[in-house]
Amino acid sequence: MVYSCPVESDPRDKLEDFVRNPEFKVIAGLRTEGLEGLIELVSAEIRRQEPESKVIMVDREVMSDNDIDFPKDLERYFEGEMSTGKKCNFLLCDDLPVVNWQTALQRMGGRNAQVYCFSVACRQIPSCSKML
């Protein structure tokens, strides 16, 4: 695996492909718009392309409200949200305060779900990575 800092760019012209194409894994945003700006753009594009799906923000507040302290708790939360039968788009915002939170995604592969992980990369460039 190669790690590199994404190049700052305006994501608007790439958003449609990023959400639609499973091969498109990472998108970067503009420093001036910050992480919140990128989250808003991606969530709006998901809602535009998939109006019937659920868009679920997962941040520290949601984790606190749902008593999520361990990966198994996060997995339980994901399962509960996916039990409705609709496609779920989970937007993981902030640094999640759960050690090994990625293990909660293991049983989600092949299911009707997509996980978008937002973070600030080096040089304060907001980025979003698709997982699953």
Write a brief caption for the model.
The chain is an alpha/beta fold and 132 residues long. The protein has four helices and five strands.
User: What is the CA–CA distance across the termini?
Assistant: 16 Å
Mind telling me the C-alpha Rg?
14 Å
The average pLDDT score comes to: 91
Q: What's the arrangement of strands in the largest beta sheet?
A: 1-5-4-3-2
> What best-fitting shape do the alpha-carbon axes yield?
globular
Give unreliable regions as ranges.
none
| Secondary-structure class | alpha/beta
Helical percent range? 25-40%
Question: Which sequence of SSEs, written as H and E, runs from N to C?
Answer: HEHEHHEEE
Strand content: 15-25%
Largest sheet: 5 strands, mixed
The count of β-strands is 5
SS summary, helix count? 4
